[in-house]
Amino acid sequence: MSRATRVSTIRRHLVQGGLVDLQLGEATQKAGHPAQHETDGFAARQHVDDAGTLLVIVGAYGPDWFTTMREARHRLEQPYIKCHVDGEAPGLADSELLVRWATFAELRARAAVQEARQAPLKALLRQGEAQQRAEEQRQALEDAGQSGLF
Prior knowledge:
By secondary structure, the protein is of the alpha+beta class.
């Protein structure tokens, strides 16, 4: 069972990430098409799942609602925010995301994927650092007049 996810916490994370809170009511969120709003931004509302857990539904609105939705997802899935975002949950509109706190297993899996993605770059950086250290040592020996030893 998930922890309760409060709408005020999710709003704060999104606003701190640079998104505009349109503060739309639930009825307004459920009615109409997201592109009908003049300003790009988001609105959030509380939702209770079948198990009785508090979750949050975040909707993206405005002419560029798709970009807003992508930015909201990216922000909420940052390692320091620790949310799980689901855009495929039943009952959601195309412009809505279901947000809840991520489980430990989900966070570990996300960290493993990120580590695997960064592994080639880290190996390349380590190789470059090793080559730089070897060059610095060779240069120091030459400066000390010991280059004939190698």
